[in-house]
Write a structure and sequence with these properties.
Layout (H helix, E strand, L loop, with lengths): L4 E3 L5 E3 L3 E2 L7 H12 L4 E3 L7 H10 L8 E6 L6 H15 L4 E6 L7 H13 L3 E7 L3 H10 L6 E5 L7 H9 L3 E5 L11 H10 L3 H11 L3 E2 L6 H7 L9 H8 L16
Parallel strand pairs: 3-4, 4-5, 5-6, 6-7, 7-8, 8-9, 9-10
Antiparallel strand pairs: 1-2
Bound molecules: nicotinamide-adenine-dinucleotide.
Length: 272
């Protein structure tokens, strides 16, 4: 169900379905989205310093009926803050804005060249201090992970990547699985473009499900954590209604086969 988890390599349980809040406005918009999601059963919220809404996310959690310990809160260190000391500072500022005592997961947002290894040392330090229950990366391709693993003392627990039927990157998923790095999808709905794909619409009709529900179900059946974004109550509820059907092997394979190496977001090799 919605509260289901995948276990990270340090034993921490990460709810495999969460709410993304990129482009959700700080203040009432994000407060409502977080409250509605928690009410609907979501137990995982994905924000970042650069989203400028950590304050509202913290407020939404506070206003919900659920205890903080039962919600998996994720944030990310922004590119401009990378480096050892500046990451420690950025982390504290995120905690202050969220008004929380600890984070469940903290990610390096992008692999900034020449800096991400120092940033990682800062995350390892914060993890050892028990300020963060799990640490990970985002937008790390195989060569970034190989490079990081040369000096890392702790293997990242998560890699959050753009992932949808047009950008599957199965080799990278396999690499992460082999290293016990939990794969996580961002822009699972192709930032809304998923609704234009007739074949997925048709597949959904067979199950009585929307295109969003089909692809989110595909994420979970592939073992990929997913964090669709919406600020609309009906959509927040509908996106999570994926636990009463199962995609067939053939439909799973069909969705895997739509891969086109097409990005809707930046390329990790040229964005830092
Ligand atoms: P998404 O693929 O989740 O799509 C969100 C958009 O789809 C919404 O703005 C809305 O317009 C539409 N939508 C959602 N549900 C719908 C429904 N039921 N019916 C019709 N339309 C619907 O895109 P996203 O926000 O880019 O990605 C999800 C989350 O991933 C973000 O909010 C953020 O938390 C995270 N993210 C991380 C990175 C990173 O670099 N690590 C980058 C982008 C996003």
């Amino acid at each position: 169900d919605l509260k289901g988890t995948f276990e990270l390599h340090n034993g921490i349980k990460m709810p495999y379905f969460g709410l993304g809040v990129y482009l959700s406005e700080d203040g009432q918009e994000v407060i409502n989205a977080v409250k509605w999601a928690i009410e609907a059963g979501y137990r995982h919220i994905d924000t970042a310093a650069i989203y400028n809404n950590e304050k509202g996310v913290g407020e939404g959690i506070k206003q919900s009926e659920i205890n903080r310990e039962d919600i998996f809160v994720v944030s990310k260190v922004w590119n401009a803050d990378q480096g050892y000391e500046s990451t420690l500072k950025a982390f504290n500022e995120s905690l202050e804005r969220l008004d929380l005592a600890y984070l469940d997961l903290y990610l390096i947002h992008w692999p900034v060249k020449g800096k991400f290894k120092d940033t990682w040392r800062a995350l390892e330090h914060l993890y050892r201090q028990k300020k963060i229950r799990a640490i990970g990366v985002s937008n790390f391709l195989k060569h970034h992970l190989e490079d990081l693993l040369l000096s890392a003392e702790i293997v990242p627990m998560v890699n959050q990547m753009e992932f949808h039927p047009y950008l599957v990157q199965q080799d990278l998923i396999d690499y992460c699985n082999a290293h016990q790095i939990q794969y996580e999808a961002w822009s699972p709905l192709m930032q809304g473009h998923i609704f234009n794909l007739d074949s997925i619409k048709k597949m959904g009709e067979k199950y009585g499900k929307s295109p969003a529900q089909v692809v989110l179900r595909w994420n979970l059946q592939k073992g990929v954590v997913t964090i669709p974004k919406s600020v609309k109550k009906e959509r927040i509820i509908a996106n999570a209604d994926i636990f009463d059907f199962e995609l067939s092997k053939a439909d799973m394979a069909y969705l895997d086969g739509l891969e086109k190496s097409k990005r809707f977001g930046p390329d990790p090799d040229t964005f830092d």
